[in-house]
Task: structure prediction
Amino acid sequence: MVDRGDNTSIPAGLTTDASGGPRIVDVPGVRDPGGIVDMGAYEYQVPLSAGSGLFLLNATKPSLQISFNGDVSPATLTAGDLLLTNLTTNQTIDTSTLTNVSYDPSTRSATWQFPGLLPDGNYHATLPTGSVSDAQADALAADYSFDFFVLAGDANHDRAVDVSDLGILATNWQTTGAKFSQGDFNYDGVVDVSDLGILATNWQKSLPVATPTALRSVATTTTSTAAAKHRLPRRALADELLA
Result:
């Protein structure tokens, strides 16, 4: 019976159940708070799931982060696991060659880092079912998707490049160790003429929210396996990222 045992009855040093899984697994919503051992030789193992997808605009380099409800086996995590589409241009981003992925066991989160700012647009990211596994070799139980947008020069992240963004850049002019939201649009750590040039290029540009039709279309596409993706040539996209 799930969460119906007595933690004090677990023999000293015993950390796994009869199948090798963790002996105590907290099942959310069952006899909370905290984890309680199950009755019997086997512990119910909560299916691996993902959530809390974030676009880290202010990281050292633009990054995508996804957290998990359990410990992921790093050996099963690859850069190409993440499927990424620019809905505005209908481009599929080749994450396998254009990102580095890392896993932080303390936060149970995976982070995909890009070498530079992605091309402008609305984006849809998906981590497909079965793409990663936990320490017990149980694969991700369901697709996880989230949306975000990128607009170069949009310091306040309001989908428009205007006088507010110019004011932010001016306030932080020549600041070192700056972030994107302070005007460091090319991620070189300083707010200078290069960033002013990026803002000027996108001056008065706005980015509408993705239409429901576009979202439905990409959702259908990402149900296929990662191997079946039609990716952009590495050199073509790399040129865009590093331009």
Observations:
- The chain has three domains: 1-46, 50-151+208-242, 163-201.
- The longest strand covers residues 50-56.
- Residues 224-243 have pLDDT under 50 and may be disordered.
